[in-house]
Amino acid sequence: MAKKQFKSESKRILDLMIGSIYTHREIFLRELISNASDAIDKLCYIALTDDKIGLTRDDFKIELAVDRENRTLTVSDNGVGMTAEELESNLGVIARSGSLKFRSELEAQAGGGEKPADMDIIGQFGVGFYSAFMVSKNVRVLSRAYGADSANVWESSGPDGYTISPAEREACGTDVIMELKDDAEDESFAEFLEEYTLHSLIKKYSDYIRWPIIMDVTKSRRVEGEPDKDGKPAVNWEDYTERETINSRVPIWQRPKSEVTDEACFEFFREQFGAESDPAAVIRVSAEGAAVSYKAMLFIPSKAPYDYFTREYEPGLRLYASGVLIMEKCDALLPEYFRFVRGVVDSADLSLNISRETLQHDRQLKTIASNLEKKVRSELSRLLEQEREKYAEFYAAFGLQLKYGLLSDYGAHAEKLRELLLFWSPAQEKLITLSEYVKNMPEEQKYIYYACGSGAAALDKLPQAEPLRAKGYDVLYMTDDIDDFAARALGAIDGKELRSVTGDDLGLTGDEEARELEQSESDNRELLDFIKESLGGRISEARLSARLVSAPACLTAKGGVTLEMERYFNTIKTESPETVRAERVMELNASHAVFAALKRAYETDRDKAAKYAEMLYGQSVLMAGLPLDDVSRFCEVVSELTA
Ligand code: ADP
């Protein structure tokens, strides 16, 4: 029989399919099962109006059969089938836009042709029927169309063409018979003859196809053997096979909420997403909209996977179109700041051959993504309000992620996210939100105060916070590296701005006090200038402090760079060797004994006065959690002054 030629597009795709080294070739099974399921859908639809079909819903099935001797794997369905013309037009040309897309992607990846394409992309495309050639050296499609009284077989061994000839098939439907490629040293195709492999591929990709997927399953049973010499019957085991439905058919996220316990959802989460602990929350969505209808089951984990803050972690939700898995991790469905969310989205309105690029622009997907973002946010708020302990556990794992989110996109999400942040309140001895802070503020308090540092122990002793505490104002502790940046992105909460206790203005002094301070500063002007000079450019200003109570001096910063930023930038390695430096201000406590001693020395012994300045500066630097420029010089000065 004369061989027919594939249309040129098809031929090229086949070439690529056959020649490339794939990591995802296993998806051929998903594609064939999905085609079989579509064919059954079509016949099922016809059956609604045609009672001559003689099949009821329960008769429809997809079957897998293995013939080890001949190395064939067969996928059969009792769906609509194809006529000879349909075999020709459906399988002789590339029907799917996804396949075309796939081809150009593949060619782009293969680049100059030096190395074979890395096939990571393949799982993202609906590549259709031709994917059978990734694993087969010969494919036969035996099909009998609904309403026809004869069958035909389409056969091809690859790009050089195909034949179509008359054949026998008892009833309508299709068998795709794949003769697997020969095993090579580093590649096994025989694995697709293994019950275990097929079983797990069905579970992985097609578990939720609504028609039963049936295959032989090997089981073991007890049989009684001949009695032994004591008359006791010997017990033997024998293997036998049984036809079994492998897929669970109705996915957990498709079942009504009332029928699925939280425990079942949690188990699904642990099993499917490799989590070790229960999630903090599960979100069920069933949306019927004009733009798109879909179901979703999302999980907010309570612990971060070990690789969460590394490049290895891949965010995204599992995306199904009518129960067929089309993408394992679709990141277009989640904003970056919720990248910890796991789960599935299933919509009948999406096409199977959606690709990563088209996804970004897909209107329906955008609608879903924006709804899901709101759902996640409101669930987090609910946890925060109603299940604080659980929220705290979640927050310990992902709070940092939310803070990064606050800073991303130039602070565009700050308003949405800031209500989800928690900070340690030493006054209440627990983590609180900014709103909770504001609610507890004494009436006259103007700002929300915070202190950044490496830990509560150091912050408890921060001299800058003393006057605030004296007034009964709480000071929130921010102990993550990015907190100082995050604090700046927070904006005002209920009209109250945030102020760092190490900033240059706490906004505490009343008019009267401010005047007094100014007076006292001008009285001490010469001394203050002397201090600045003797420290030789290490501070940009020395001033008298309105805030210090028991400490003799402290450092603050003016301008855009805070002390916390300085500390942060100098701990991370940047490309430029320059160090980031805050504009340091040394504040002195005029009512402290050391200040008095400094003042006396200034009048009688300038050398000694300079040493006092040096010592106070060193103390302030240490209290701010910054390193000393010259440790031995500092020690010398302290010893000399106390000798
Ligand atoms: P797609 O399924 O996206 O259309 P395929 O290349 O997988 O692309 O299949 C091409 C066409 O072949 C299908 O549209 C369908 O009409 C037909 N087809 C494939 N498999 C079957 C089957 N098992 N039964 C009936 N028709 C089939």
Structure classification: alpha+beta
- Strand percentage, roughly? 15-25%
Per CATH, the architecture of the largest domain is: 2-Layer Sandwich
How many runs of DSSP E, i.e. beta strands?
21
Kindly provide the radius of gyration, computed on alpha-carbon positions and rounded to a whole number of angstroms. Answer: 36 Å
Question: What is the end-to-end distance?
Answer: 111 Å
Query: What name is given to the CATH topology of the largest domain?
Result: Heat Shock Protein 90
Main sheet makeup: 8 strands, mixed
Going by CATH, the homologous superfamily of the largest domain would be Histidine kinase-like ATPase, C-terminal domain
Describe the structure.
- Helices cover 36% and strands 21% of the residues.
- A hairpin with a 2-residue loop joins strand 11 and strand 12.
- It has 20 helices and 21 strands.
- The protein is elongated.
- The model is unreliable at 112-126 (pLDDT under 50).
- The protein has 643 residues and is α+β, with helices and mostly antiparallel strands.
- It folds into three domains: 10-218, Histidine kinase-like ATPase, C-terminal domain (Heat Shock Protein 90, 2-Layer Sandwich), CATH 3.30.565.10; 252-397, Ribosomal Protein S5, domain 2; 511-558 and 583-643, Heat shock protein 90, C-terminal domain (Four Helix Bundle (Hemerythrin (Met), subunit A), Up-down Bundle).
- It binds adenosine-5'-diphosphate.
Give a quick rundown of the structure.
The chain is 36% helix and 21% strand. The protein is of the alpha+beta class and 643 residues long. Strands 5-4-3-6-2-1-7-8 form an 8-stranded mixed β-sheet, covered by helices on one side.
